[in-house]
Amino acid sequence: MSTSFALADLLTSGSWQEDAACRDADPELFFSNDETDREQALSYCAACPVRVECLEHALATREAYGIWGGTDETERKRLLRRRRRAA
Ligand code: SF4
User: Fold this and answer.
1) Prediction pTM value
2) What is the DSSP letter of 70?
């Protein structure tokens, strides 16, 4: 499975994805284990006008890999746990 292709597909599918700051970025940055790549991906997210929408999508679909909405896998797991406890 290549998750980076999934991101590329998602980012051409319309709605909020059309405003994504990472639209023309290398998707590999968002799924790399290299810390420099991940920091670069997060810098796109920091300036992204659809960060909240992206994060909510990743949480709703339980995206297990990559940088989404300015979060990594561990941060999303933490957010989901916190939401479950608050529900
Ligand atoms: S928040 Fe990050 S991953 Fe999501 S669309 Fe924006 S730049 Fe891309």
Assistant:
1) 0.85
2) T
